[in-house]
Amino acid sequence: MLALLQDYLKDNWLLAISAPFYTGMILLEVIVSNYHKKAFHTVKETLINFWLNMANTLLGISCKVLVLGMMTWFLQFHLISISNEYLYWMLLFIALDLCFYVEHRSEHMVRFLWAVHVTHHSSQEYNLTTGFRSSVFRPLVSCWFFIPLILLGFKPLDILLMDAICQIYGILVHTQYVRKMPKWFESIFVSPGHHRVHHASNVIYLDKNMGMVMIIWDRIFGTFQHELETEQVVYGLTTNPAHPYHPIGIIFHEWKQLFKDLSKPNTSLSIKFNYLFKPPGWSHDGSRQTADEMRKALTETAATK
Fold it and tell me: Which of 61, 106, 150, 178 has its CA at a distance of 20 to 30 angstroms from the CA of residue 142?
């Protein structure tokens, strides 16, 4: 068993390097938060976070050959080749971060993709272990958003490596202990404050700050939102799962609701299509609201006061 683990870590050197670092950071956060008597961690929530990460990892390993096969097939259609090694890796980082933004925004705007992504947002806690609260089925989604990178001449294994490196940064911003970063930093990069906004269920914060490493995409494409001193972040979903600690239910709760909507009687094919592809909260009878509709209603209410 030990030999198998050693072989796995040898082939996954980034995990071998990052795992002790994560462990130390999480233990430090737990110790400091307990010392300050802040309820940032609970055992149940932490266990669910790591269970979701484990399920994501196992699925990723299981389908790795198929994903790499699909990505390699597209490589034959690449349009350009970048010979300069330094330029290659710099452009890969920028392009991958943009692709992640597109993927992430799509997951918030398309209902069936939200059903995949929602597990990452379903915690009402926010700490470093929340960063491990993976969207279990992401390996089956992200590979399709990597296709533009392949067509630009980036190699599949290099793409997956850069994605893993960027994910390390994406995990570290899940903390309440870093309140502000320097202004120049927050103009370019995602900060813990930016990402706290992203995990909020407050109407004003919904579907904001989608970037993983760089916040510039949100600033360019209109999804940026500051963390406001007058609006304290409330973590979780607008409607939280009924059974947040059920290991299977927490993965499929949004799928269950989606299939319930698709099964509604006397609904046309176009309505079913809209339930699949419209934003979360869309309903044909107005019984629910999307994030934009909730924001509009909040603005109209404030204007009448």
Answer: 178
Collect contacts of 162-165 with beta carbons under 8 A, ≥24 apart. Answer: 162/89, 162/92, 162/93, 162/96, 163/96, 163/100, 164/14, 165/14
Which H helix or E strand runs over 198?
helix 192-198
CA distances from 103 to 78, 96, 100, 116, 144 (A): 21, 10, 5, 12, 9
Q: Are 164 and 17 in contact (CB under 8 A)?
A: no
Q: At what angle do helices 156-172 and 13-35 cross, to 10 degrees?
A: 10
Nearest to 141 by CA among 261, 60, 249: 60
Q: What is the pTM for the complete model shown?
A: 0.91
The residues near 180 (Cβ < 8 Å, ≥ 6 apart) are: 186, 191, 193
**Residue 152 gets which letter from DSSP?**
T
* Residues 6 or more apart whose Cβ sits within 8 Å of residue 77: 150, 151
C-alpha distances (whole Å) from 301 to each of 71, 222, 227, 304, 305 are 49, 23, 22, 5, 7
Distance between CA atoms of residues 98 and 105, nearest Å: 11
Domain boundaries, the chain: 14-178
